[in-house]
Write a structure and sequence with these properties.
This protein is an alpha+beta fold. It folds into two domains: about 80 residues, no CATH class; about 80 residues, DNA Binding (I), subunit A (Orthogonal Bundle). Helix content is about 25%, strand content about 25%. The protein contains six helices and six strands, in the order H-E-E-H-E-E-H-E-E-H-H-H. The strands form two sheets. The protein has a four-stranded mixed sheet with strand order 2-1-4-3, with helices on both faces. It starts with a helix and ends in an 11-residue tail after the last helix. Bound molecules: zinc ion. Zinc ion binds next to strand 6 and helix 4.
Length: about 190
């Protein structure tokens, strides 16, 4: 029970930190391979709870009435966490990440907000919303392809869309982060 009280008091402490909701922390397994990315509040709870150590600090501090903590950007768990194989849920954000935020027809990389997702086999023709049938497309290519299958639109894909694994998406995410890309394994 003592642990529960301790953790809830840490939540109270850390929730007062400025801008903490936007901050994310990379969590490494005890073996140093990247495991996941957590909200800073949860990462701080792991460190203060003795379950993880800070590997890298970022700029600035986290403040509360009673504590000042250096801001962690990378932490490492003290115990090995086995990650069971899980199918990733299909999401737009996941498709953009898998495709490296690049249009899969022309290779353009506009701002992510300007990217769309395109059904390779159009929904109107029975195409599914699935990892294997949806790709990232710029607006121009999406408009050009419209509701036509590839051969009718005379367009080709730069790579075949596949279902990503959790580690492969995490690798993509780390590669886009200046502090984290050094933790990419393999
Ligand atoms: Zn394009």
């Amino acid at each position: 029970m003592e642990g529960t009280v301790w953790f809830s008091s840490v939540t109270e402490v850390t929730s007062k930190g400025k801008g903490m909701r936007e901050s994310r922390v990379l969590v490494l397994n005890v073996s140093c391979e990247p495991l996941q990315i957590l909200a800073i509040r949860r990462a701080v709870r792991l460190v203060l709870g003795g379950k993880a150590e800070v590997v890298e600090f970022g700029a600035g501090h986290l403040r509360s009435e009673h504590h000042v903590l250096a801001r962690p950007t990378v932490i490492r768990l003290h115990r090995y966490v086995h990650v069971p194989y899980q199918d990733l849920p299909f999401t737009r954000a996941g498709v953009l990440l898998r495709d490296n935020y690049a249009c899969q027809y022309c290779g353009a990389t506009p701002l992510p907000a300007l990217l769309t997702i395109d059904h390779v086999m159009p929904r109107a023709l029975g195409g599914q919303s699935s990892w294997e049938n949806v790709v990232t497309a710029c607006r121009a290519c999406n408009g050009r392809k419209a509701n036509k299958p590839l051969h009718v639109a005379h367009m080709t894909l730069r790579s075949r869309p596949v279902r990503p694994t959790r580690p492969s998406l995490l690798r993509h995410l780390l590669s886009r982060h200046p502090t984290w890309h050094q933790y990419i394994v393999g």
